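retry 2 of 3: previous attempt timed out while embedding NAP. Reduced batch size to 1 and resubmitted. Inputs unchanged:
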Amino acid sequence: MSQSSPCILVIFGASGDLTKRKLVPALFDLYRQKLLPERFAVLGVSRSEYSDDAFRTYMLENVRKYHNGDGLDKALLKRFIAHLYYQAIDTNDAAAYATLKTRLDDLNDERQTRGNYIYYLSTPPSLYDKIPRYLGAHDLQVQGEGQGWKRLIIEKPFGYDLASAGALNRTIQQIFGEEQIYRIDHYLGKETVQNMLVFRFSNGIFEPLWNRNYIHHVEITAAEFIGVENRGRYYDHSGALRDMVQNHLMQVLGMVAMEPPSRISATGVRNETVKVFDALRVYRPEEVSRYVVRGQYTASTVRGEAIPGYREEADIPADSRTETFVAVKAFIDNWRWGGVPFFIRTGKRLPTRVTEVVIHFKKTPHHLFTENDQCDVSCNQLILRIQPDEGILVKFGMKLPGAGFQIRNVNMDFHYSDLTDAYIPSAYERLLLDCILGDATLYARADAVEAGWKFVDPILRAWQERPEIQIFGYPAGTWGPRETQALFDEPGDDWRYPCANLANDGEYCEL
Ligand SMILES: NC(=O)c1ccc[n+]([C@@H]2O[C@H](COP(=O)([O-])OP(=O)(O)OC[C@H]3O[C@@H](n4cnc5c(N)ncnc54)[C@H](OP(=O)(O)O)[C@@H]3O)[C@@H](O)[C@H]2O)c1
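retry 2 succeeded.
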């Protein structure tokens, strides 16, 4: 077992989707790898009535279904499940926290966890300020000599806009110190996102080129093949900008654009991230339609299957103006990136599921090989594939053997799957373990969250206040509205299209 301290993880929202699909399976995967402390317990909390045994039986099924590793050792699973407990309370009810406190005291005695507690908020966001306040009212946040440590993990979404994110920060910080607060963004738990730091800062090859002198523009794409599924009510209130850009894609942008931190530590890395967000150019309302394109999918047929339009989906109003696609041309106004556009796009019902960063290097200053040169816009690219088929690819021009100088675009690629013994932990495994170990490097800090909202908030407000800003339809299964092309100024520049429109099953796509 690891040297991490004994602790209890209290999951608020234990009967919910995230707990069963991600959190408990990730804990099992940590347990399987002997990465959890020996003295460890999970206390599930929500309103539904379960006994400890019923909760364990329910989670057993879910671990079987959703765990990450190959095969399943039944005896091990049984031992893991015995670490789970359940307490039904309504977290809206301040008095109910006395029951929680008693249960925690008992469990702490039973499991000898030294008063070390992690509270994981996986409830509807409307409870994110209430639960910490009520925990505080019962001194459940108090830490120190003889009382162990206390940490709080908060799921996304962190706020609905700048004002609500700021208010939530202030409420929580009245009870928990910033060093106790872990705002989760599961993108930061992805191996390939973390690898950007290693790729950039442990290799002498690329970093000298990583600036405005050599990079023409950067693309960040997060495409989803699926639509809103059964999350229509939530999604229509959120939209692509809030759901994907404000958190996940901003974090990816931070990794791509940050200065080298003086050391890899929570302070070092997060100081540099916040500087990137602070340097993002904020658009005035009249600039929004020039730099931001929003879209909504319309009905279409994808590989023979009729796909309803967004407005025909369950729980979506017939006149909804929520964006299911957004493309942003962003600028980081600092010394390294002055004038380099960052094109960020995300959407639902696109041709495939893929998340990648494409670094487009500048062309050579003079075009020497004019005869049959295929090394056009798709050459001189470095592609960092975050999911699926995680890997890194360089695209460059090569001479075709034979007379003259015919140039072909070729790939040099690395796939994580080529590391035959590499086990890629799920993002939640990594992040839960980091929190148990007290390492907040891969969690968002209050100032970064607010700096991110400062960029996003004016766009949301412009959309709300200026109905003349268009929302463009795009047929399901295409790469979004045609108008996204207009974000590029230079002739010949365009997005990378990892798969042709309507091309595949949405699961896998060749680099
Ligand atoms: N699911 C995902 O993949 C995912 C991904 C990223 C972020 N998130 C975020 O994580 C949070 C949870 O998501 P989810 O999908 O798991 O939601 P969910 O399935 O709706 O679960 C919500 C949980 O909160 C509990 N709850 C609601 N009101 C409560 C109350 N008054 N007192 C105690 N418990 C209460 C519910 O249980 P009872 O009804 O039994 O009380 C349930 O366990 C959300 O904020 C979501 O935005 C989810």
